[in-house]
Amino acid sequence: ADTIKIGVAGPMTGANATFGEQVWTGVSAYIKDVNAAGGVEGKQIELVKGDDACEPKQAVAVANRFVDQDKVQAVVGHFCSSSTIPAAEIYNDAGILTVTPSSTNPIVTDRGFDTMFRTCGRDDQQAVVAGSFILDTLKLTKIALIHDKDTYGQGLVDALKQTLAERGVAPVLYEGLTRGERDFNALVTKIKSSGAEAVYFGGLIPEAGPLIRQLHEQGLSVKFVSGDALAQAEIVTSAGGPQNLTNVYYSSAADPLKDPETADAQAALKKENIAPDNYTLFGYASAQTIVAALQGTKDGDVKSQIEWLRNNDVKSAVGKLAWNDKGDVKDFKFVFYKFDDKGTPVASN
Amino acid sequence: MRDAVLEVENVTMRFGGIVANRNVSFKVKQGDITALIGPNGAGKTTIFNCITGFYRASEGRIVLQSNGRSCNIGDLITKPIVGGSHLVTRAGIARTFQNIRLFKEMSVVENLLIAQHLATTNNLLSGIFKTPRFRRTEVEAIDRAYYWLGQMNLLEDANRLAGQLPYGRQRRLEIARAMCTSPKLICLDEPAAGLNPSETRELSQVIRRLRSDHDLTVLVIEHDMGLVMSIADHIVVLDHGEVISDGTPSEVANDPAVIAAYLGVSEEEVTA
Amino acid sequence: MDFYILAQQLVNGITLGTIYGLIAVGYTMVYGVIRMINFAHGDVYMVSAYIAAITLAVLSFFGVQSVPFALVSVLVITCFVTGVYGWAIERVAYSPLRGSTKLAPLISAIGISLMLQSYVQIAQGARDQGVPILISGAFRFGTEKDFAQITYMQVVILLASIIAMAILTYVINHTQIGRQCRATQQNRAISAVLGVNTDRIISTVFVIGASTAAVGGTLVTFNYGSFNFFIGFVMGIKAFTAAVLGGIGSLPGAILGGLLLGLTEALFAGYVSTDYKDVFAFALLIIILFFRPYGLLGRPEIHKV
Amino acid sequence: MSTAATASKPLLEFVGVEAHYGAIQALKTVDVYICAGEIVSLIGANGAGKTTLLSTIFGVPRASSGQIRHRGEDISRLPTNKIARRGIALVPEGRQIYQDMTVEENLMMGTTAIGMSHFEEDRTAMFDLFPRLKERRNQTAGTMSGGEQQMLAIARALMARPELILFDEPSLGLAPLVVKRVFEVLAEIAAMGKTIFLVEQNANHALKLSQRAYVMVNGKIQLSGDSASLLDNEDVRKAYLGLH
Amino acid sequence: MENALKSHLVMKLAKEALFTFVIALIVLGPISGLVLEGFSFRNELARALALAGTVAAGRVLVSLALSTAIGSSLLQRFSRNSGGGVTVKTGKEKFPYPLLALVIVAGLAFPAFADKYYLGVAILALIYVLLGLGLNIVVGLAGLLDLGFVAFYAVGAYLLALGSQYLGLGFWSALLIAPFLAGLFGMILAFPVLRMHGDYLAIVTLGFGEIIRLVLTNWLEFTGGPNGAPAPPPTLFGLEFTRTARQGGVPFHEYFGIPYSADYKFWLIYIVLFLVVCAVVYAVHRLRAMPLGRLWEALREDEIACRSLGVNHVFTKLSAFMLGASTGGLAGVFFAVHQGFVNPTSFTFFESALILAIVVLGGLGSTVGVILAALVLTILPEVLRDFAEYRVFVFGILMVVMMIWKPRGLVRITRPAFFPSTSSATAMHVNQPLEVAR
Lengths: 349, 272, 305, 244, 438
Ligand SMILES: Nc1ncnc2c1ncn2[C@@H]1O[C@H](COP(=O)(O)OP(=O)(O)OP(=O)(O)O)[C@@H](O)[C@H]1O
Ligand SMILES: Nc1ncnc2c1ncn2[C@@H]1O[C@H](COP(=O)(O)OP(=O)(O)OP(=O)(O)O)[C@@H](O)[C@H]1O
Ligand SMILES: [Mg+2]
Ligand SMILES: [Mg+2]
Fold this sequence. Notes:
By secondary structure, chain B is of the alpha/beta class. Chain B has 13 helices and ten strands.
């Protein structure tokens, strides 16, 4: 073929469409530059969009389509862990390099599929960081754990619960809320009556925003800690404005914007007038990873690509990435952020 | 002396505050055609519904003598889990409705086959694998349906949708359907309503034939006094939910209470 | 302490329940006239949330400062635009199906629901949106540490809902148009013969349903401050549940059903488990319908045989 | 046929009307006219198409060809509710009262075409005509007996102060006493100067009451003429009066 | 005269266009014209005007097309079409055996020509055929509006996933157990449901479906919660379809000494599924000609009349629920084995709605219709992939359009004709009493 096809799979429709959009934006921004610079080995890269709406059923269809119809050589995706898990099996069978920008569930790489890599962290890594942040930095021990009963959120909270248990701390509250709802007042009152000093929330903005706002409205001054899903600009509007974010912290990759390694990517995005949203960066980084592997191996063989990724670093939009044998990023650095009075995230401590 | 097939004893039926039947008692004798008449709203349909198990009488009891056994309708419909009005049909009472209730989007024959399901329902597998026994019962059921269509003069409509039939034919089909459950007692609620005089005459012959050829007892509600007077052996008159008269046609027709409440005219004028 | 927690949960439940009730009204009324479960209703509510936020943004762009004025004008404009939505949807997707099977409009409604969601997503983006806090502060009862509160916004919600419901109840029970609605519900063919413009009545009902959803949508938007194109789904199912709980077709039933559902959720979440609160709510629904097959205030269809 | 009507201009006129239910043709080139102040009856066997004829006036089903003229205007394409507002009322087959409304609300609905201004007055008149309804004014109509419902249906139609009233088998399922009463009421209504178009199975009563009549067979008008002459017609007597 | 007519038409069209434009502007204006950005907005009014203009122009075009001769004749045919309902066969129709044989052969040969993507789509389509057939028993035949059908689908799918995890069940044993287990769930649901009428039944089934999904989501220890549970791949006589044996057997390709391909697994699933679908189609076809199937339909038409004929409506409904549920359970097993992984997001209310759409679009009660509709509604979203994010939008529009085009479904229902066994049958049985099981 005279082009190299790369599939980009994620939720382009449905409840999580906003993330799919970000990943797509990031990937296409990078690939555009690569193509402009002559492509890989003189071949242009062609992107194929696959919408799985975060449904496993569609994820499998998309994966089969990528493999059999579009004959892609690599895949960025999928977004949700619950989509990545069934799809990874198909890519692995077909020998296609797969890099997910966002599936943090440990199972994704723990199943021993060689072709599976991720540019994001793992829930259990993030949980360890969160545990020590709450216990050691904030020095709080009465913790309420709230999740959204979804793969990402619950995975994170359960891992944290495990971490806390290892430190001998039991949560004062462990509850799951329902995605799509907006009224968490009952839960907030329950948090209040539990006497929690910190709330750890595993979930996404649509629920995190109202939860933060309602905590404020009911006059609770607990610390609100959450994961990398909060690294989105709309948390400010969603939570009702910067004044509600004073006690909010979230962990995310070490601020890519500050990392000198990411300067090129920053500039590239800025040139295109693209907002450096969290998953735009991870999408960008995933695309960089794949292109790097393709350029580094040249023979088009997936085995050597895997080998190459295990042995080389990639300078990416989220910092320098290196992988272990499972496909997880080595020493993925999570850093905690809080918000200044304009609602811009700043590294805490 | 013939036995009573059905005994209605002191039945009272209330709907909230409204008393639709008060202390109604009458007997239906084996092989008789008994007519139930009375002004609109007298409670005729309501007592029918009690007899056929669609309502549970608030007080009193209704007893059916069938195959040498007597069964209490009230007990049948209140049996736990399996109970219900369908047991009343199985005990031998069939009925038609004041407002026709056919399976409109099914064919005429299918309407009759459904009425025979008790004889034809084999187990699931025999039907799926078309066992010989299944085929035999199915053929028998179809033949029986055609027999009743012939009896009711509906043969040419056999494979039309029931809902497409003209009203008069729908009435007859409803009777044929009821007959397919092979009842001991058939309850007809205003079978002649909407029929013209010649059709009504035909209907009265059908009813007579049901009684004579098929050993059937008939209980009929009707406002057409011509029909009632010509076929009934026995008439029960209800007014305001109570029995005001009970006897032979001539006794009832001359009962001043009945004339005042219902007929409004003397008997001669009615039969003329 | 416990007392305040209980009081707080009651406040939470009642506020939530009122909103369920407002949205449930749309289901109940539409069901009443054309016996159809309007599955697109939740998404009409979602659209109204967007319209409310857009209106507010436009008002503040033109420098409107007064909060009561902003609130009232947002409410009015949102009701109007959403009402037109209700009207248009009925014309386009349901009225051509009049007189066909009962389920055809149901499927059409599902199609409309997908369309609305997708349309809003494409036009406005998938990300979460928000509105600034307009009214803050609360009435507090109790001590500095132990207290129950009702926010001013919650008070506004309750007042607005009560007013909306009172107007609606009056219209349905005591005006010509209300009687015509009920008549059309019971027997459309004969109503037309008596001179009722049944098409207009059906449209009216859709407009009323959409407008009450818009009241709900506006209040929710101001109270919770955030929404996205997907909020219609969960709210739709909840409100539908409330409508059935109260007896679908019955206006007071919708309110009662909403309140019951809201309170159940708040108390179960507060005292037992948030995880299983929906399981409990649905189980309660099944149990109530088992003993009252027509809902709490629903009138049984008369089975005069 | 329609030329016969030139003497007094017909109030309602069917000119070559046909109607279909899906593939079934229910009316075949029907020509019928009714002049103001007349009582005209239509008799025919079950399924002849009598009800269909009445319903096409209101456009359900729509006439597939031909015209239905009211005061000389073609109304066959008007929406149903507009037709009602022209002073035509129907007492439908099977009563069709509002089951869940009270008797009184049913009467209120009857005024839809003219508004509520005469309601009190007309209601009193109806209660005089049907004292039974007065007793039951707050009962849910669906729980009343057939006869009571029929009276309510007639009263409801009268509430619109119509000029032309269409009756579809008003005696169906009624006790003899009530049938008598209904026909008395029909006569009273006629005496008020209203035009009546009566569809009946009860040919005897209908022909005695009306001035002119039509006989319908299989969707076609087979016979028409003075009621008195039809009463003497041998075929009519045989088929519809049950006499030999 | 001619001119007057024309200008009248033009006036009418202009009015129509203006009206549509104004309505479209009110409806579309705010959402597509003013895009929210933070607490402020971005002006896209040009887009809104363009959209409203397009809508108005479309409306005018449609009106114009309909006012032409061809258009109006189309419209007439269209309205005729939708008016028709059920018809009875004449009894002379020939059963299309050659066509049937062709379909079966083509179906069996399909994997030989298709790649994995087409095969995957075909498997999904067949799963929905199965689901449609199951729900058709409940909704189409018995007339019970079930909005929680997905519950039984979930039961089947989780049976395989959890069964293999806890009990060591494999694909084949799950396939055998699933109908019974799902049927049992159907029975549990049926008891509270059967007292209810019409739409109350709908909400209770919806609630049941949600309860099942919520329990699957919340009961972390048992079901794996949102993370779901893996489902084992199928085996054939103990041979596995994985690259290396995992369930303690021999891999298929090693046994036959052929190179490994992931396709074998899908071939097996497809063939088994196809045969199961054929069997279910046959069973449903038979059921409709059996007393039980007829009773379901009678119950749909008039429950009171059924009771007056001695039909135990409770048991009859129960049987419909259970058989429908069983079919749904079967479909679930295939889904799980095809996905290799199940989690609650596959069993949302939307899934129930989609299955219902299949049944309604197919024509309530029509088996052929359900099959067609299932194929259309599963293949359509795949075809629409080229529309990218407009996919769902277009799908929604098509759903509405299809309903308006064929409100009674793709296939018209016909009723079988029956004839007596002999011409003199009507004279028989005169005094032969019916042997009724009392
Ligand atoms: N389900 C019900 N709920 C309330 N009242 C009822 C119900 N069924 C009947 N009634 C009342 O009981 C009385 C008797 O009604 P029923 O239908 O038995 O009269 P009927 O004698 O059959 O009259 P008709 O000859 O007009 O059919 C009526 O006044 C009616 O209002
Ligand atoms: N909704 C319908 N769909 C299909 N066919 C119909 C429909 N209504 C009536 N028909 C058919 O049209 C024909 C005329 O029916 P119509 O009801 O007008 O007769 P009718 O003279 O009023 O009879 P009846 O005395 O029984 O009231 C009948 O053959 C009937 O089967
Ligand atoms: Mg009666
Ligand atoms: Mg008629």
